[in-house]
Amino acid sequence: MSKETLFALSLFPYLGFLWFMTRSGKTPRLALIGFYVLLVFVAVTIPAGIYAKVHYGEALANVDWLHGSAEFFLTISNILVVLGFRQAILQTKKP
């Protein structure tokens, strides 16, 4: 199985994860937004990878400005997830 196929197939379990996390109503809102921003990262990375291959003849990882721009969305996603769960922990510690 190619890495591209595996990448495409991995989207379905993640969408299921998002569906359950959203339906549960127990996930901190900011963290949930962070999990959804990860989909933005995926949506940006795919065309960026295609552009890198077509325009530069390189893999996305070898085109620094393009790779860094795509990774920005992963960083934002991670920050939102951490801040969301941090906020939830702090709220449970309040008297």
Automatic annotation (TrEMBL):
Protein name in the entry: DUF3593 domain-containing protein
Pfam family, one: DUF3593
Transmembrane segments: 6-23, 30-52, 72-89
Keyword annotations of the record: Membrane, Transmembrane, Transmembrane helix
PANTHER family: 1-ACYL-SN-GLYCEROL-3-PHOSPHATE ACYLTRANSFERASE
